[in-house]
Specification:
This protein has 77 residues and is mainly α. The chain is 81% helix and 0% strand.
């Protein structure tokens, strides 16, 4: 547990010193978390809506991804 606390302090230090003063890394972190959030929301949409058995899994994911990005970037669906 003590080692995990030290690792957490180390990563906190990196976030404070390296990322906050470097604008390109800040934008990269924001984009990373945005992509992760969109992925999670798309997976949640598939879980709620269900899988269409007439098409493959990739197409189901792309449809959910399209719906999610459209909903997040516009007024709604």
């Amino acid at each position: 547990m003590a080692k995990l606390a030290r690792i957490a302090q180390y990563f906190n230090h990196i976030m404070e010193v390296e990322v906050r003063h470097n604008k390109s890394l800040t934008i990269t972190f924001i984009l990373f978390w945005l992509v992760i959030a969109i992925h999670w929301l798309s997976c949640g949409w598939i879980a709620i809506r269900g899988i269409d058995l007439g098409i493959d899994h990739y197409s189901n994911y792309v449809r959910a991804l399209y719906w999610n990005i459209t909903t997040l970037t516009t007024v709604g669906y």
